[in-house]
Each structure stands twice: as C-alpha cells, then as structure tokens.
Automatic annotation (TrEMBL):
PANTHER family: ANKYRIN REPEAT AND PROTEIN KINASE DOMAIN-CONTAINING PROTEIN (PTHR24198), ANKYRIN REPEAT-CONTAINING PROTEIN-RELATED (PTHR24198:SF165). This is Ankyrin repeat protein. Pfam families: Ank_2. Keywords: ANK repeat, Repeat. InterPro entries: Ankyrin_rpt, Ankyrin_rpt-contain_sf. SUPFAM superfamilies: Ankyrin repeat.
C-alpha cells in the first residue's frame, strides 16, 4: 500500500501509513522502495515525509535503461525532477 501511495503522490495516505508503522524501506519485485517510487514520479512532498520517517536515501533499485542499479536521486535526475534531486541531495544522497 505504501508503494502505491508513494507512486501516486498521495501524501496524506503516505503519512497515515508510515505513522502506523509501514516499512519506509520495504521493497517490491524490482527492488524499489517507496522513496524510489516517489522519486520516479516527482512527488517532493512524499519524498519529504519518507525522509522524515528515516527512508534510506542510498537504497539501490534497478535502473530503467540497463541492468545497473541506482539510488532515488539518480532516478529523479533520470526523469528530470530537479526539486526532488535537490531535496535528496540535501538529505545526504
């Protein structure tokens, strides 16, 4: 549920789920965490909530163009989300 909320930018649902103990670093089949999902779609407010709840900015996931893996900041840059890149870099990415 947290991955879907992060993917669609549902910040209120993200807050509710993490406040109730959802794993901010939980992974789905392609190794994506909720932070990766928010980075791919450019949801900066979701990124902030996840970071405030201890999301790992250095977690790796499969990159869209190859068999390489990348972090949330690399994905945000790949998709052109400058504000997300800035927030993730400030968080130590």
């Amino acid at each position: 549920a947290l991955h879907s909320a992060a993917r669609f930018g549902w910040v209120g649902m993200v807050k509710l789920l993490v406040d109730r103990g959802a794993d901010v670093d939980g992974r789905i089949a392609n190794l994506a965490t909720p932070l990766h999902m928010a980075a791919i779609y450019g949801w900066v407010d979701v990124i902030r909530v996840l970071l405030d709840h201890g999301a790992d900015v250095l977690a790796l996931k499969d990159m869209p163009d190859s068999t390489n893996q990348g972090t949330a900041v690399q994905l945000a840059a790949w998709y052109g989300h400058r504000e997300v890149v800035k927030v993730l870099l400030e968080a130590g990415s």
